TrEMBL record:
It comes from Pedobacter alluvionis. PROSITE patterns: PROKAR_LIPOPROTEIN. This is All-beta uncharacterized protein. It comes from the Bacteria. Residues 1-19 form the signal peptide. Belongs to the bacteroidetes fimbrillin superfamily. FimB/Mfa2 family.
Length: 605
């Protein structure tokens, strides 16, 4: 029943719109009686667009002017009050250059006036003409002008294209007379544009076959509310919606052939930002396409969000490019079902910019930003971490850290494919797990990676040593083969790390602590248990600070270094943990079970 009511209301609104399009009986122009006119040339700065000529709709189309209406508002005690309106006569227009010239007959006056330009809105002006009363406030006049559309915007070809309503207003004019030779206006389109493109990686696996817009608005204010317009930047800051705005039915766009992009076809009235992501009332897209050459079309939901995942509004005179960065699998079989569910198997980034008519505006290029990994779970020790970075933005990239324990090796870099980026993390001595982020920015895109660092279960602060050291010895007194994770009886003289067993032996360094853990080599162990008092004192201080036990002075400790002077390869070096002992180091059979083992791991640097 609710759906029937909605459809009925929608059909009624459209039928009313058809009726209202009939010829009005009211006289169009409203010049004051007895007015003396002054013909004035006026110039328009049109929105800047970058639309390749190979597309059906070009920049000339987007800036096409079918009609111009000029409204005059007299300034009285700081208030801007309606005086009259008149038609403009087009002299020349160049949509590619973003310029147009026209003339209009203005009333000669010594009073202060503000003039407002409306392009391609004559039908709406004619419908509202009966309410244009002299002395009426400007906002009351302009806010009554609403564009209604009962279907998607007509933009199939240049021959089948509906020009966009546009608005602009100039500064205060100190009278109109024979010396008033010209005026210049900058205008904004009343619609937003959306393009969809596949990034290089996505284009390897996916082709677009259709696009559906859910919850597009059926109407829009031709003139934005004054509180939502930034005069200095000539751009809107918030949506301006008619009180009677409703959602259109789903608007479908179909491609003749599967493609890597859909451009210059989707134009929408402004829509407010959704209250949250993935809500049913959001204005968003469902992309239909084929994954990895499949004949089956599946569907993917895309919400309009910024780089942090926050919903964004669709603003007039703004361009939105949905960059499909990656498609990792088939979507959902039905587009309606896809809209009702969260996105699956698709990664997108949305670039947005104002198509301002400022002379020095720069239109962003289409580019991508990728990092090789977005989440790092760290063991808590100091280290260097490497990842792949790829940005195609000509201005390169920058990176910032949210904390002082995550230190980027570089703060910026150039554009390039598969760059190697590295950052250092400091040892976690806080006593608790902690999380920090790195945020990469490239043009208007951003990507944040998260690093979560545990409390380390080892010491990594040993002076002069770039190794993690286990806090305790391996249990018992294992023989060398077991502690080193090497096959019993092996006579190889290679480093033990080159002849590791997999799976690791129970009770070995690799099994107890994980991959990469090993016995220290001869040099490392002599520095872990040095005989010089001051050096040993520094090592023991560092071990205590890390919560580690000291080396047991009653035992020799295994090194991972083979004794290669013995041809059988059955001997290994041991070092005495007792600085007062008569024997500092020695060699012994690997099968001995009289010695201790303390495991270490090289720090990634």
């Amino acid at each position: 029943m609710l759906m029937k009511k909605y459809l009925y209301a929608f059909m009624l609104m459209c039928s009313m719109a058809i009726v209202s399009c009939r010829k009005e009986t009211a006289q169009f122009e409203s010049m004051p009686d007895g007015a003396i006119n002054q013909r004035v040339k006026l110039m328009l700065n049109l929105p800047k667009s970058v639309q390749p000529k190979t597309y059906a709709i070009t920049e000339n189309d987007e800036n096409r002017i079918a009609s111009i209406d000029l409204f005059a508002f007299k300034i009285v005690d700081g208030k801007e009050l309606f005086s009259y309106y008149t038609k403009g006569i087009i002299l020349a227009a160049d949509g590619m250059l973003g310029e147009a010239a026209f003339y209009a007959d203005l009333v000669k006056t010594t009073d202060d006036y503000r003039f407002v330009i409306l392009c391609n809105a004559r039908e709406e002006v004619q419908k509202a003409a009966g309410s244009f009363i002299e002395g009426k406030p400007k906002d009351d006049i302009l806010y009554s002008l609403v564009k209604l559309s009962c279907e998607k915007w007509t933009a199939a070809t240049s021959a089948n294209f509906t020009p966009f309503p546009m608005w602009g207003e100039g500064g205060v004019v100190k009278g109109v007379n024979a010396q008033t030779s010209s005026m210049t206006f900058s205008v904004l389109r009343s619609l937003a544009a959306i393009d969809v493109v596949l990034a290089q990686d996505a284009s390897n696996d996916f082709r677009i076959t259709s696009m559906s817009i859910f919850n597009a608005n059926n109407s829009g204010q031709i003139v934005p509310f004054s509180t939502n317009y930034d005069v200095n930047h000539q751009s809107v800051t918030e949506v301006s919606l008619p009180a009677s705005v409703q959602f259109l039915p789903v608007q479908d766009y179909h491609l003749d052939q599967p493609s890597t992009e859909l451009k210059n076809e989707i134009y929408l009235f402004e829509s407010k930002a959704a209250s949250d992501v993935f809500t049913s009332e959001a204005t968003g897209l469902v992309i239909g396409g084929k994954y990895k050459g499949s004949t089956q079309i599946t569907y993917y939901r895309v919400d309009m969000v910024d780089g942090s995942g926050k919903p964004i509004a669709l603003l007039r005179n703004h361009h939105y490019t949905v960059n499909i960065i990656k498609v990792s699998g088939a979507g959902i079989a039905d587009k309606e079902l896809a809209w009702r569910n969260r996105p699956v198997n698709i990664t997108v980034g949305i670039t947005q910019w104002s198509e301002a008519n400022l002379p020095d505006v720069n239109i962003p290029e289409v580019y991508e930003l990728k990092v090789g990994q977005e989440i790092f779970q760290d063991n808590g020790g100091r280290k260097r971490i490497n990842l792949d970075l790829n940005t195609t933005y000509s201005g390169g990239w920058t990176v910032t850290s949210s904390t002082n324990w995550i230190i980027p090796a570089a703060g910026s870099g150039p554009a390039g494919q598969a760059q190697n980026f590295s950052f250092n993390v400091a040892s976690n001595k806080s006593g608790a797990s902690r999380t920090g982020t790195l945020t990469f920015k490239s043009g208007m895109l951003s990507k944040t990676i998260k690093v979560t660092q545990a409390v380390p279960n080892f010491a990594d602060n040993l002076p002069g040593l770039d190794i993690y050291v286990a806090k305790t010895d391996l249990p018992g007194t294992p023989n060398w083969y077991l502690a080193a994770n090497v096959k019993d009886g092996s006579t190889s003289t290679l480093d033990a790390l080159k002849i590791q067993l997999n799976p690791a032996r129970t009770g070995s360094c690799a099994q107890v602590y994980g991959e990469g853990w090993r016995l220290p080599n001869y040099d490392e162990l002599t520095r872990l248990i040095p005989y010089q008092y001051n050096q040993r004192s520094a090592v023991e201080k560092a071990l205590r600070e890390a919560g580690a036990t000291l080396f047991d002075r009653q035992y020799f400790y295994w090194t991972g270094t083979n004794y290669i002077n013995n041809s059988s390869g059955a001997w290994a070096h041991i070092i005495n943990a007792n600085p007062g002992g008569g024997t500092l180091s020695s060699t012994t059979l690997k099968t001995s079970v009289k010695y201790r083992a303390r495991c270490v791991k090289s720090i990634p640097l």
